[in-house]
Structures are given as structure tokens and as C-alpha cells.
């Protein structure tokens, strides 16, 4: 399964094609539903003002966006067909609510409820048939077939990576440890590499060697390359297929010679404008929820303590700022003045605090940090200065995550569970470096859409 780069971010081509195919299905289902409803009331010819083609396109765009928000275009979706169908139902319901809101705001659009109901029913049946067909007849269609060439230790590191969208077809050893245990088939053959890759239907070859000089069959690899097979060295594999910059493999020369880190003034200005507009809109929409949360916290504290919590965090270019959150812990959570990581089932968290953490309501006041300019909607999560100092000593690249504004959500929050240890923080750094290197407005929008999945399904919450 090939990957294509869209505005610096790697995406799986078959999943993009799936999104396109489902967009066509959504449009066709609405078009059929429209005419079915029109014929059922014997209303005669469809007037041009009804514009079913235009409405079909609108319906398709809205439903595909919600399908993406439910994580249905991710190669590593865990739940299988049953879980996918639950997400499809949610996507269709939320898409219908969105279209109903559009119809209310623009009453001149003939988005009739009966037509929309038929479109949702037809769409569910069509998506069920399409995804069910892939699930039962081509379950590996969306997986990228990869052959690893090199040493056993680095090969095992590649295989152990959380890469559910990949089918490792085998390991071709180039060193003397060919008999060492490996969790994928070890290939022993005298067959030329291009013929082997063609026989195994390989999409990419990963070179897992600490030093490639003088050890690689260059002519055979070149033959594979010109035949359309991707040749990836280790760091490029992790960046492209996993969405991380692997710290163990990172070197200054790789960063210098690789592309990325394009933070143009125009894109930053657009990002800032987007932050201001979205913060204002969401601030108005979520004001009632924030009011209820504040009242619940105030009641739980017997009307004695503040509902807001301010804490110093490190922002862009290493500058400190005060982040604002709803208080979710007891007042004496750090009475001894010693900073601690939040942990799962932390006994410092209050009953109300546990709920607002799970639903991310505790983060809502950070909208004011965004308006002020200390934060953005998307970026690495801001960390406390005590932890930043400690982690910067652990790894020289930790400060690189401060090259952009911290965010309310981010790539690490989508891809990695809630971290509460130094090791977790360094694992998240691999995702943050990927974001800083491959930043674009497109990636920001993708993260925001998929954040909906995080909130609705509670991914990464304590």
C-alpha cells in the first residue's frame, strides 16, 4: 500500500481512494434518495432550484469529514468490522446533525429531512457492503507490504513498532546472524532481490543496517527503485509509516539534509487567524458547558476555592506562560511543592475532575490562552518548566519542540496514550518532532478533525 505526501504529511493512497469512493457513494445515495422521495409524492419534474447534484456534493463532503473524524480512514483502526460500523453510524448521525444545522442556517437549501433520512439509510447499506467486502475478501488490502533487509536487531526494532497498517512479508539478512530468532519469516534464497520483491508483491524495502556502506546490493536496489518499489532507510521508514522521528536513530546530519521545518510567515499568519476565529466561535458554543463545569467544581469545593487553575508552562521559543485550566485536583495536590506526573487513577483527582478530564472539559479555558497568543489549537502540548529542564538534559532534541506554539491538541495526543513518565515524554517527543518537521495547515486540519475521535472515544484520557 503506497503512501503519498500531501502538504508534507504522508497518507496511505488506498485509504485516500477509499475516502473518494465513499464520497461518491454518499453523493449517489443522496441523489437516489432525493429522486425516490420526489417520485413518491408525485411532484412532477424536479425544478432546477432544487439542485440535487449540488446538494449531493455537500452531503458527501460533510459525511466524509465526519468519517475521518471517527478515525475511519486510519490504517491502524483496532476494532475490526463491528467497531468500524459503530463509528460509521456515529459519523452518519453527526453528519445528519451538521446538515440539519446548515439547513436551519440556510433555509433556501432544500435539505429535506425525509430525503436526508433516505440518504442515511442508503449510505449505511452501501458502506456496509463496501467495507464488509474488503473485510471478508481482501482484509490486507489497506496494508503496505514491506520487506526488511539488514541486521536482525534493527529488523526486530522495526517489527516491534506499532505499525498495524503494515504487513511485514519477511526479513532478508545481510549479516551473519541469519539463524537468530525473528518474529517474521527469514528469507534464505539466492534469488535476485528484484525477482524476490516482485514475487512477494513488495511495496517497499526497508534497509535496517547501522552502517550501509559496502554492505548493500546497490545495483539490485536500484533496479527495485526504478521498478516503483520504495527504498527506505530506517529513519525515513519511521517518519513515513509510523509518523515519528525516531530518537534512537536521529542525527544532526539527517535533520540538516532532510526536507521540512517550513514555517513560512504567510502560513503562520493564516494559522493565527484561524486560531482567533475558531477560539471565538468555540468559546461561544462551549460557554454553557464551561459554566456548568465551573458551577460543579465550585459546589464540590463547598464554594470555597477557585474553579480555575493556573500553572506555568513552557511555550514557543522556550518562553514561560500561565496555562489556564479548570481545577480537576484537590487544592493540596502538590502541598509539598514537588511537581508530580499525573497518573492513572490518581487519588488527587476529584470526582468532578475525573469527569472533566475524561471529556476534556478541563482544557476548555485554554481557549483564552489561544486568544491571547500563548497557544495554538494544534501543536505540542506545553510542559511544566521543571519537567522541561529534566527532559532537555535527557535528550538534546527536546528543546526543538518549542520551535512552534504549544497546542490544545497535537499529533502526539492523537497517536500516543496519556503519558505520565519520562519514557512516555520522550516517546511523545518523537511525534512532536514529526509535527514540527512536517507542519502544514493541512496537517493541522487533519489533527483537529481526528481530535473529535479522541474526545468521543476517550482515547488517551486518564
From TrEMBL:
<keyword id="KW-0472">Membrane</keyword>
<feature type="transmembrane region" description="Helical">
    <location>
        <begin position="276"/>
        <end position="299"/>
    </location>
</feature>
<feature type="transmembrane region" description="Helical">
    <location>
        <begin position="53"/>
        <end position="73"/>
    </location>
</feature>
<keyword id="KW-0812">Transmembrane</keyword>
<protein>
    <submittedName>
        <fullName>TIGR03013 family PEP-CTERM/XrtA system glycosyltransferase</fullName>
    </submittedName>
</protein>
<keyword id="KW-1133">Transmembrane helix</keyword>
<dbReference type="GO" id="GO:0016020">
    <property type="term" value="C:membrane"/>
</dbReference>
<dbReference type="InterPro" id="IPR003362">
    <property type="entry name" value="Bact_transf"/>
</dbReference>
<feature type="transmembrane region" description="Helical">
    <location>
        <begin position="116"/>
        <end position="137"/>
    </location>
</feature>
<comment type="similarity">
    <text>Belongs to the bacterial sugar transferase family.</text>
</comment>
<feature type="transmembrane region" description="Helical">
    <location>
        <begin position="85"/>
        <end position="104"/>
    </location>
</feature>
<feature type="domain" description="Bacterial sugar transferase">
    <location>
        <begin position="271"/>
        <end position="456"/>
    </location>
</feature>
<dbReference type="Pfam" id="PF02397">
    <property type="entry name" value="Bac_transf"/>
</dbReference>
<keyword id="KW-0808">Transferase</keyword>
<dbReference type="GO" id="GO:0009242">
    <property type="term" value="P:colanic acid biosynthetic process"/>
</dbReference>
<dbReference type="GO" id="GO:0089702">
    <property type="term" value="F:undecaprenyl-phosphate glucose phosphotransferase activity"/>
</dbReference>
<dbReference type="InterPro" id="IPR017475">
    <property type="entry name" value="EPS_sugar_tfrase"/>
</dbReference>
<feature type="transmembrane region" description="Helical">
    <location>
        <begin position="12"/>
        <end position="33"/>
    </location>
</feature>
<dbReference type="InterPro" id="IPR017464">
    <property type="entry name" value="Sugar_tfrase_EpsB_2"/>
</dbReference>
Amino acid at each position: 500500500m503506497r503512501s503519498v505526501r500531501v502538504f508534507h504529511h504522508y497518507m496511505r493512497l488506498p485509504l485516500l481512494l477509499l475516502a473518494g469512493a465513499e464520497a461518491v457513494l454518499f453523493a449517489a445515495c443522496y441523489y437516489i434518495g432525493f429522486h425516490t422521495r420526489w417520485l413518491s409524492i408525485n411532484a412532477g419534474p424536479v425544478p432546477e432550484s432544487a439542485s440535487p447534484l449540488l446538494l449531493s456534493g455537500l452531503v458527501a463532503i460533510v459525511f466524509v469529514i465526519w468519517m475521518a473524524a471517527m478515525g475511519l480512514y486510519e490504517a491502524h483502526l483496532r476494532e475490526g468490522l463491528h467497531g468500524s460500523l459503530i463509528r460509521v453510524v456515529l459519523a452518519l448521525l453527526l453528519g445528519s446533525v451538521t446538515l440539519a444545522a446548515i439547513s436551519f442556517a440556510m433555509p433556501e437549501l432544500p435539505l429535506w429531512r425525509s430525503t436526508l433520512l433516505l440518504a442515511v439509510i442508503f449510505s449505511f447499506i452501501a458502506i456496509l457492503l463496501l467495507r464488509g467486502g474488503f473485510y471478508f475478501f481482501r482484509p490486507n488490502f489497506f496494508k503496505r507490504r514491506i520487506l526488511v533487509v539488514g541486521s536482525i536487531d534493527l529488523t526486530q526494532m522495526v517489527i516491534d513498532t506499532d505499525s498495524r497498517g503494515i504487513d511485514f512479508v519477511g526479513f532478508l539478512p545481510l549479516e551473519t546472524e541469519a539463524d537468530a530468532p525473528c518474529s517474521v519469516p527469514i528469507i534464505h534464497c539466492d534469488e535476485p532481490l528484484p525477482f524476490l520483491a516482485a514475487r512477494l508483491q513488495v511495496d517497499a524495502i526497508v534497509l535496517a543496517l547501522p552502517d550501509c556502506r559496502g554492505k548493500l546490493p546497490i545495483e539490485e536496489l536500484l533496479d527495485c527503485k526504478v521498478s516503483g518499489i520504495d527504498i527506505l532507510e530506517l529513519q525515513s521508514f519511521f517518519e513515513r509509516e509510523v509518523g515519528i522521528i525516531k530518537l534512537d536513530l536521529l542525527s544532526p546530519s539527517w535533520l540538516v539534509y532532510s526536507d521540512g521545518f517550513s514555517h513560512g510567515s504567510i502560513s503562520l499568519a493564516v494559522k493565527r487567524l484561524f486560531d482567533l476565529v475558531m477560539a471565538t466561535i468555540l468559546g461561544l458554543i462551549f460557554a454553557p458547558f464551561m459554566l456548568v463545569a465551573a458551577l460543579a467544581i465550585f459546589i464540590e469545593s463547598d464554594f470555597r476555592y477557585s474553579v480555575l487553575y493556573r500553572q506555568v508552562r513552557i511555550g514557543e521559543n522556550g518562553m514561560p506562560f500561565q496555562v489556564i485550566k479548570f481545577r480537576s485536583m484537590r487544592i493540596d495536590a502538590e502541598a509539598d511543592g514537588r511537581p508530580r506526573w499525573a497518573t492513572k487513577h490518581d487519588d488527587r483527582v476529584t470526582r468532578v475532575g475525573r469527569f472533566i478530564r475524561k471529556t476534556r472539559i478541563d482544557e476548555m479555558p485554554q481557549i483564552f490562552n489561544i486568544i491571547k497568543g500563548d497557544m495554538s489549537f494544534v501543536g505540542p502540548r506545553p510542559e511544566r518548566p521543571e519537567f522541561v529542564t529534566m527532559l532537555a538534559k535527557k535528550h538534546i532534541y527536546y528543546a526543538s519542540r518549542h520551535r512552534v506554539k504549544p497546542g490544545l491538541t497535537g499529533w502526539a495526543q492523537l497517536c500516543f496514550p496519556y503519558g505520565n513518565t519520562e519514557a512516555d515524554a520522550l516517546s511523545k517527543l518523537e511525534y512532536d518532532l514529526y509535527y514540527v518537521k512536517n507542519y502544514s495547515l493541512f496537517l493541522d486540519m487533519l489533527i483537529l478533525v481526528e481530535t473529535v475521535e479522541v474526545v468521543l472515544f476517550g482515547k488517551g484520557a486518564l
